[in-house]
Each structure stands twice: as structure tokens, then as C-alpha cells.
Design goal:
490 residues, Ald_DH_C, 23 strands, oxidation, binds nicotinamide-adenine-dinucleotide, alpha/beta, six-stranded mixed β-sheet, aldehyde dehydrogenase (NAD+) activity, Aldehyde Dehydrogenase, Chain A, domain 1, Aldehyde Dehydrogenase, Chain A, domain 2, 2 domains, globular, seven-stranded mixed β-sheet
Length: 490
Amino acid sequence: MQTTVKTLEGSRQNLFIGGDFVQPESGVYIPSYDPTNGAAWYQLADANEADVDKAVKAARAALVNPAWRRMTQTDRGKLVRRLAELVTEHADELAMIETRDNGKLLKEMLAQMRAMPDAYTYFAGMADKLQGDTIPVNKLDMINFNMREPLGVIAMITPWNSPLMLLTGTLAPCLAIGNTVVIKPSEHASASTLALAELIAKAGFPAGVVNVVTGNGATAGEALTRHKDIAKVVFTGSTQTGRRIAGNAAANLVPCQMELGGKSPHVVFGDVKIERAVNGVVAGVFAAAGQTCVAGSRCFVETNIYDEFMDALVERTRRIKVGHPLDDDTDVGPLALSAQLEKVEGYVASGVRDGAKVAIGGCRPQSEDLARGWYYEPTILSDAQNDMGFMRDEIFGPVVGVMPFSSEEEMITLANDTNYGLASGIWTQDIDRAMRFARNIDAGTVWVNTYRSAAYMSSNGGFKESGYGRRGGFDVMREFSRSKNVVIDY
Ligand code: NAD
């Protein structure tokens, strides 16, 4: 892999179209910033409509290229497996690139990249297992069957918080099925996707099967989601952008898969070991400086342990080390964007104006070393009310609002009182109660006595304004293939 943190530094990155890295027709390059010091560290191409059209044409041409169209399922699976091997070989460099681009902890990125090849291998194994059905009809001498085939060109738009990991859950199955792809990574973290493109070429995928167009949402993203030759749009990002993209795609009757934002409830009952639940709540919301879609940012605690729990939560949070993402002893790194930092500050200030109290945090770190980066202290707001702005909107920062509840009924009403429905967590020793929660909560994922443990083997996704469509497990193979009915009279 030519792309490394070293080669990226000060470089201009081009688009990956039809198997080659090419200069953008737009002629425009935009900076990508290092969140630890706010400095631009490389330039990425800002693709325009003509660039995007070129990429979609390359993907369409690859669909009918015999090298791809007539490749057996088994061979497609082998190619995806080969990609898994290459990702394994380059996992550490890919992790370094993402850390530099989005400021997430290197140790977390290393864990993600080293786990990622298993997901590619898992979906590679499905390439030859996607079957159709033979259906009995009310007539002799007739065969009626449904066969499954690829959808076509899939547009994939990804966010900056975990670009490659979030891409894997749809890219790997799409390739296993035989689709072709145009990826538009976030303008704030495109480098790892461009590096992956290199590995895709090296693995031996025919030219045009995977294309990467970088650039702003308003330029490259809009052009891609408005394109008429897309078969499906896969979007991971904010609910606001998802709404706009769904509108663009709907104009062409193109279906979407939407993985959007969240405001997930994290519920703690009085029968738990407090230390364990505190660790779960802390990891659930402060991981990645709160920049995870599933962040448990609304914490509901049973009244009989509220004071004790709050004391322990504040104490545990005091021990969190905010620092540089490359340092091994750092627990929380910077936010990825300066706008994100301002957003967090705005929500905390409005929460305090509305009557919430800062139990800890509520400011940027005092350390001189961190002054130039986009850092914010892990923050707990007590005396929260579910109608306060910071309890309703996704902040995407290290902020959790805590409030007490006194009955199961009250808790489920509070937990469900949100426009979102991505994830949820409950800490209790009572399995009946946990099951009632799982049944009554409006969230696509329910964690019991754990949080953020995701598996690509199970299908998952959001409810309500957190999106629609499912990733993971075998369901994803149906989401990205289509059924064709064939009737033979003989
Ligand atoms: P974002 O919505 O700002 O951007 C996401 C992507 O959309 C970027 O590539 C961006 O360039 C593109 N985009 C922006 N405007 C566009 C437009 N008009 N047309 C087409 N594309 C456009 O999100 P973000 O700030 O990059 O990521 C954070 C958000 O992503 C949070 O809301 C988070 O919850 C969500 N997220 C969801 C999941 C999930 O699985 N549900 C996972 C990770 C992140």
C-alpha cells in the first residue's frame, strides 16, 4: 500500500475511478484537518457532477464486464477473502491514517482494523450461499422459480467517525453478491477509504467494481445521490442529511438504506453492582469522545440508588484521561471537527440555562498541550429533564444527561420519549425486567448488562428517525440483491 500517514502529509489525493487514481475534472482540492492541532495535513479532491458521473459510468461498465459479471460466486468470495488478507497486512497503517484524520484513539482504531478482516471473511463466505426458490404452481409441466441477482451500482456515503469499519458491513456483502460500488467518504476523513481502494485494486477486483469519489456533501454527495443510474443508496450519517438524501433518491425512485443518528437511553436499576453499571455507562457514552451513533447519552437511574450512583459516576469520570490519540494512556481524544466542539459547548450552555447542573466537566481541558486541539472534558449534566435540548438532540460529543426514575412504567415512557430509536441499554439482575424492557423499547438494539458490543453476524439497524434497512447477518444479502421470477413451460 503506497498510501501511508507519511505519503499523505502535505499531498494531494485524487479520485479512484475505473481502477486508477485520476485528477478531478473539477480541479478543486480541499483540506483535511488534524483534530489534535487544527492544521490541514493533506488535500483531497472535491468531485463535481462530471467526476461523479464518470465514476457511476465506470461502475456500470464493470457490471457488464465479463471479468465481473461472469465471475462465479466462488471466485467472488475468494476475491473478498483476498481483500481481507490485505487488510490484515495493512491494518496498523490503516489505523494510523484514521487516527490522524478523525482524532480517534489509535488503540481503538487498531482494534477495529485488526477485527475488520473477519467481517470481510464472514461476508465472503456468503457469496455462494445466496439462493433462490422454486415455487409450486397450479399447473403441471411448468417450472416457476425466483432467482437472485445483484442490484447494480450501489452508492455508499459514509461519515468520519469510523469510515472503514462502517463501510465494511455493506461493501463486503455488496461485492460478494456481485454489485459494483461508488463510495463517497466524508470530506473530514477520506484517506483510509482511498488507501482501501489501493488494496481493492491489488486484490484483483476488475477495474470499476469499486470507485471512490471524495469531496463535500453539497457537491460530490449531492451529485451521487441525485444520479439516475444508481440502484440503491447506502447512507451512514446524521438524520438531517439522511432526510435530504432520501429526498434526492426518491425523486429517481431509488431505494435507500439509512443508518442515522441516535439519542440512546441507558437505564440503571437499583439491583445492580454500581461499579459495573458505572463502567458500562462511562464506556457507552464517552468512548470516542461521544462520537458514536449508539452513544448512551440519556441515563435514567432508579431513585433508590441515584445519589450513590451519581457519586460513583462522577468519581469514575474524574479518572478519565483526556489526551493525544496516539498516547497509550489516553481514554478520550479530541472531537473530530472544530464545529463539533462548538456544538458541544452550545448544548452544555443551553442545558445549564434550562436548569441542568454540571456535575463534572462542562469545559475544555485546562492543559496547555491540548489548547490547539478540539478537546472537551467528559461532561455529566444532572437534574436533566427529557424536554431539555441536550436530552432531545444528538450532540455527538462527550456529554451525558442523568435523571432519576421511580417506576418501570415511568422509565419506559422516558426512554421512548425521543425521535430516535437506534440503541438502548439496561443494567439489572432481573431477567424478567430486562425482557420487558427489550419488548417495550423502541430501539433497533437492546443491550443488557453490556453496551456497544456489536456483531456483524446479526442484522441490526435503527427505528424511527434513526433510519431503516438492516446490515449484518444474512439479511444484508437480501437487501443488496433482487429477486427475479422465471416461469418455464415445458
Ligand atoms: P453527516 O450527515 O454530516 O455526513 C455524512 C456523510 O454525508 C458525509 O460523507 C457527507 O459529506 C455526506 N453529505 C453531507 N451532505 C450531503 C448531501 N446533501 N448529499 C449527499 N451527501 C451528503 O454526518 P457526519 O457528521 O459525517 O457523521 C456523524 C453522524 O453520523 C451522526 O449523526 C451519527 O449518529 C451518524 N452515524 C450513524 C451510524 C449508524 O450506524 N446509525 C454510524 C456512524 C455515524
